[in-house]
Amino acid sequence: MHLREITNDNRDAVLALRVRRDQKQFVASVSKSLKQAAKTPEANPWYRALYRDDEPVGFVMLSWKPPAGPFKGRHFLWRLLIDKRYQRRGIGREALTQIAALVRADGATELLTSYEPGDGEPWPFYQKFGFEPTGEIDDGEIVLRLTFPAR
Prior knowledge:
With 151 residues, this protein is of the alpha+beta class. The chain has helices at 11-15, 30-39, 91-105, 123-129; strands at 2-4, 45-52, 55-64, 75-82, 110-115, 132-138, 141-147. The chain has one domain (2-147): 3-Layer(aba) Sandwich (Aminopeptidase). The chain contains four helices and seven strands; from the N terminus they run E-H-H-E-E-E-H-E-H-E-E. The radius of gyration is 15 Å and the shape is globular. The two termini are 26 Å apart. The mean pLDDT is 94.
């Protein structure tokens, strides 16, 4: 699995990625994500397509150390989408491992994310990876933290 920039050559294939119907309440589409990124440059959005070989299988977007806001100067996993055809193959875990390594290499001591609670929520996935609740709520979402061990 590897990360690729989204270009004119792969944009349509990445925009075609979809989660399962029962996950739509928890994960926005790639199209909506890219629109949010364009509308909120102050969040310092950073996004990539997830590829397995030459096949796009997912999408990831972070708020990369924004200069202001509730997550000022921190790395926040804003979106993680694995296409419904490729779920349950370890791709989400692999993607999160790569993202955590990139964030840690940038000098971070933690990676934040959040989720909307509800039936079928992604909390079990994040918990298995090592995320813990921070006690914060952001716009109705529970904020989680993955702490990196000291080097």
